[in-house]
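Can you give me the bound-state structure? Components:
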Amino acid sequence: QKGQIRVQTENIFPIIKKFLYSDHEIFLRELVSNAIDATQKLKTLSSIGEAKGELNDLRIDVVLDVNAKTLSIIDKGIGMTAEEVDKYLNQLAFSGAEEFLNKYKDANIIGHFGLGFYSAFMVSSKVEVFTKSFREGAKGVYWSCDGSPEFELYEIDKEDRGTKIVLHINEESEEFVDAYRIRGILTKFCKFLPVPIYFSEENGREEEKDKELEEQPINNPNPIWVKKPSELTKEDYENFYRELYPAGETPLFWIHLNVDYPFNLTGILYFPKIKQSYEIQKDKIQLYSNQVFVTDEVKDIVPEFLMLLHGIIDSPDIPLNVSRSYLQGDPNVRKINAHITKKVADKLDEIFRNDRPSFEAKWESLGLFVKYGMMTDDKFQEKANKFVLLQDVADSKFYTLDEFKAATDATQKNKDGKTVIIYTTDPVQQDAYIKAAQAKDYKVVKLETLIDSAFINNMEMKWDSVHFVRVDSDIADNLVDVQEHTNSILSTEEEEKLKGLFGFQVPDLTVKVEVKGLSAEAAPVIATRPEFVRRMKDMAGM
Ligand code: ADP
Ligand code: MG
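Here's the bound-state model for the whole set.
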């Protein structure tokens, strides 16, 4: 037998109410998004002459009435006729946005699924809609529904074009009868929506009312990432950074993303100033879809190492309402990910080539991104090989990998022909070793931040032509012209005595001596830990 699955609305409705979104506060994002869509549609229709008359002051109002326990969302957008209300609100999952998009391609419309409106029922015992279409001669329409599959729909007198949605907040959702809470949700999700949104409170306790705040829209309808980079100044970028992170220091530089093929992506990524890896604050990138905030948990969406960046990514191709596990597998998300990595690498390369002094001056912060990126992303590493820097502890001069190889070509190669990068993790503590190495004409570079030990391990595997050696280790092993040579500062007797006193074997003081034009006697200074031994001998009174 063949047939059609039948859906019983009475059963489906409570399920939607409960499970549509795990986060109930989302209802406000959905309803404001619809108000924005209605306003944007009107602009589109007006611009092509299909909507006549003045648009007037296009704004959205969110009004909380504490006594009546209602929350209203009011727009001056296209509104709906009775037929449209019946079509869009009485039919689940019939998305007018989808239909409109198909008809008028480039319109910036948020909705897609045709379910957002129903999220109102997650928090409402009753939803009322007062609406009037932009069409000439349209009549006002009233619709209401208490969350059962029954609704009321009739004509009313309504003067102005647009839609007012009144939510009667239900008992379990009283948390939303709170101006502070509503303002918080609006600021979180609607901060950069493209139409001014005003929040006000009716019947609120007088002393809590803040008239001045109410006269300001809660959003910035023209965030700079949607503008052309050529229209923007350095100040614009820095001011926007401050708008996002009021407490943040001026960023080092930024990348303005602007792609429209093969996917849509805009946004600004800032490189913050960072001195040590423990200062890193992740989750500073916010993800938007057509200026609607989606999440600030961008893990899986941007490459791991770019989570160190700050800023905004906006892509209508990133779905609004899906889970993170879905995002991971989403082909657009993967493409976006690759694109951002490439952009960041290109930007760094550009600064490096055009303004090396400034690149070097910022290396303290930049090094962290670059190294982290090289460790976690092979494509990035390929590009970064050209601009990753090594800093000589002697004169603070910076070398690229190639420059370092060239500069040490005659002096610092091991028997496999690999360039030996001698590094210090602590220029103060290891001073004696550094001096000794320098006396032998070796260059010692600083690799002293928290990330460096991981970086060294990682590059040891990835860079075929390089071998890393810590300045206070057995460097002799790794350099050319090595002669095995045994030498010891301690006699066997002394060694035994120390072992007896301290209860452990002093480190192996037998050294292999590197002899490159140097006397064998000079070598142990590098290869053993003479200070340590001396101190132990002091303590033992030897
Ligand atoms: P979506 O936004 O994904 O299309 P919704 O369930 O949020 O789905 O809304 C369903 C439809 O109802 C919308 O596509 C739109 O046609 C209509 N609608 C909802 N809110 C408004 C509004 N404020 N003004 C005009 N039409 C609206
Ligand atoms: Mg919607």
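A couple of observations. The longest strand covers residues 124-132. The two ends are 99 Å apart (CA to CA).
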